[in-house]
Specification:
Largest sheet: none
Protein name: DUF4244 domain-containing protein
Helix content: over 70%
Order of helices and strands: HHHH
InterPro entries: DUF4244
Structural class: mainly alpha
Radius of gyration: 27 Å
Number of helices: 4
Shape: elongated
Organism: Streptomyces microflavus (Streptomyces lipmanii)
Number of domains: 2
Strand content: under 5%
């Protein structure tokens, strides 16, 4: 049994949450405290920046590929075939 089991039971009764959810939340918050939040300060912003740059680069490559001649003609023939299909 958890050392603060009574506290979690009281919180469960007060908030109406299932006991398992409260225990998971308590374990997760303890895990975050052990990690130390100060070690990752500023990391989130740089991760978003790198992810945004990667997404833009992927979009540029995809745009070039889709607008190339062979791909454009293949897509056009597929669309024409789909629109000319007889039901």
């Amino acid at each position: 049994m958890h050392k603060n089991h009574r506290k979690y039971q009281e919180r469960t009764v007060r908030t109406g949450l299932v006991a398992g959810a409260v225990c998971r939340r308590a374990r997760r918050s303890a895990w975050v405290r052990r990690l130390g939040r100060s070690a990752d300060r500023g990391m989130t912003t740089s991760e978003y920046a790198v992810g945004t740059i990667a997404a833009c680069a992927f979009a540029a490559v995809l745009y070039k590929v889709v607008n190339s001649g062979p791909v454009m003609s293949a897509m056009q023939s597929m669309i024409e075939g789909a629109l000319d299909a007889k039901f």
